[in-house]
Design goal:
By secondary structure, the protein is mainly α. It has a single domain, classed as MetI-like (MetI-like fold), CATH 1.10.3720. Helix content is 80%, strand content 0%.
């Protein structure tokens, strides 16, 4: 079998398309993960609220999202919501919304477990000192929960990133879209998907390195103990 990678790297159009795909995949993943994490904090906190409706809604959201495929959520967001609500967004915006929804459910479950690891004595001591409920959560519970569960959040983030190739199904020009386009023009499927595999591995390693930097800088107090 003759491998002909030169049909890819000698064509400026294909190289540009792959570079654009790398940027789009990385950018949409980071946007979806950031927004999803913010939503996840609210969902996880709602699971501990004394208001039964909030707890039920948050639990239902998490269970529903975790038990449906990302591609189904993507199609609903990209094609169902615009019909129901009558708005028009570019497909990349639909992809960000779908990824935000998907990431939030998985992150929320990890954070919920993290909240349970915080020593109850610390919360009671802060309450005895007159520290407000919101301040206790922001300054005591949330930082320790994230620090304890950061490795799990990191692993889940990388796993979810590797599923984002489905956004190409709605026309987003991500890395998988670039591979499909090049394959349809060159008919060199083996070479194309080896190239995609290498690029996805490199992106995963880059994200892993970024998360390690964030962990070291954000949780110096943890390593100093």
């Amino acid at each position: 079998m003759e491998l002909r990678f030169f049909e890819i790297y000698r064509n400026p159009e294909y190289l540009w398309l792959l570079a654009e795909g790398v940027g789009m995949s990385a950018g949409l993943t980071l946007a979806g993960a950031t927004l999803g994490f913010m939503l996840a904090v609210g969902l996880a906190l709602s699971r501990f609220e004394r208001v039964p409706v909030l707890r039920w809604v948050a639990a239902a959201w998490v269970d529903f999202i975790r038990n449906t495929p990302l591609i189904v959520q993507l199609f609903f967001v990209a094609f169902g919501l615009p019909l129901l609500l009558g708005y028009v967004w570019p497909f990349w915006a639909h992809a960000v919304l779908a990824l935000t929804i998907n990431f939030s459910a998985y992150f929320a479950e990890i954070l919920r477990a993290g909240f349970q690891t915080v020593d109850q004595g610390q919360k009671e001591a802060a309450q005895a000192l007159g520290v407000g409920r919101f301040t206790r959560f922001v300054r005591i519970v949330l930082p320790q929960s994230i620090a304890q569960m950061f490795a799990s959040l990191n692993s889940q983030f990388i796993f979810l990133f590797l599923t984002t190739g489905v956004i190409s199904e709605i026309g987003v020009r991500d890395l998988t879209f670039a591979g499909l386009y090049i394959d349809s023009r060159t008919f060199r499927s083996f070479e194309v998907y080896i190239s995609l595999t290498v690029l996805y591995i490199l992106l995963s390693l880059a994200f892993k390195a970024l998360m390690q930097v964030i962990e070291v800088r954000a949780f110096r107090w943890k390593t100093a103990r």
